[in-house]
Write a structure and sequence with these properties.
Layout lengths: L1 E4 L3 E4 L4 H14 L3 H35 L9 E5 L2 E6 L2 H14 L4 E6 L9 E2 H5 L2
Antiparallel strand pairs: 1-2, 3-4, 3-5, 5-6
Helix pairs in contact: 1-2
Length: about 130
Amino acid sequence: MVYLDMNKGFYLKNLDEKAYRAIKSIAAKRGVPVYRVINEALALYANLYDSLAAETEEEANNRVYEALVGDPRYTGKWVVIARGKLISVVESWNEAVKVLRNFLKREKASHGIISKVGVEVEEIEILGSSLEML
């Protein structure tokens, strides 16, 4: 539970005691107040969270694609992959784009793959805001 009073700061309940002691120790070693170390930690976490999530989604999509390569059921077919799952298997690029567009109307994604399995094609990576324009 967080209590917020803009004049006096805010108070956190149910903090992990070991984590708090570690933060307090870091603050003491640096000669700074505990709140400064906590603010730095929160800012660092907030900045890293989005980039880590995007990398994780991309890696998940790539793992799904790699699992399809070599499977004769998908050879020569267009696959649509997003959010770490196979969304659809279709016969054409245009169908694949349509499927991904419909998927993006229902769910948010930061990375997607449309590829013809087992066929060398020029790699096109669609990320973030470009994915939203599909």
